[in-house]
Design brief:
Blueprint: H1 9-23, H2 30-37, H3 41-44, H4 51-74, H5 79-96, H6 98-105, H7 114-132, H8 138-161, H9 171-184
Helix pairs in contact: 1-2, 1-4, 1-6, 4-5, 4-6, 4-7, 5-7, 5-8, 5-9, 6-8, 7-8, 8-9
Length: about 180
Amino acid sequence: MVQKRDLSAAKIIAVAKILIQEQGPSALTFAAVAKQLNCRTQALYFYFKNMRDLKLQVARDFFQAVLELLTATAQGLSGEDGVLKLAFAMRTFCLQRRRLAEFVFSLQDLANDSEARRIGEAISVLPNQMLTEFIADPKQRLTVSRGIRALVMGEVFNESAGWFADERVSREISFTDNLKRILAH
C-alpha cells in the first residue's frame, strides 16, 4: 500500500487523466484513482477537497500542456501561416487525447475557475498576436479567434461521434478549408 508521503497531486492527476483517456469520464472516481495508486481513498482528500476539485485540476493540467505545446510551436511563426500551424497543433494534441479533451471541454463552470481562465487567456495570446498582423479590428480578431477555437473543439467532438467518417474529403483538408474560411473573415 502506498503511503501518503509517496503520493502527490501530480501523481493523482496523472492517474485521473489515464482513467479518463482509457475508460472515459465515468471511470474517474476517488475509488478508482486510489485503486490505481494502491492507496486508501481517504488519502486523496489530503490533495483534493472533492471530485470537482480533482476535475478542475485535470482541466488546468490539460490547458497547461496545450499552452506549453503552442508556445513551443509558435517559435519563429507569424501571420496567417502561424495561426494555421497553431490550430493544427492544438487539433492534433486534442485528437490524440480525445476523451480527455472532451472531458475538459465539457466541464461545467470551467470559465469561473480563475486558474483555468488565466491559462486559457495565455493560450489565446499566441494566435491573437499573429491575427493582429492581418486583422486590424479588435472585434473581428475576437470573432476569428473564437471561430478557430470552436473549429478545433468541433473537430474533437465530431470525430469522436464518427461524423467525419466520410473519406471523400480528408479530415485534414476539411479542417484546413474551414480554417481558411474563418481566417478570410
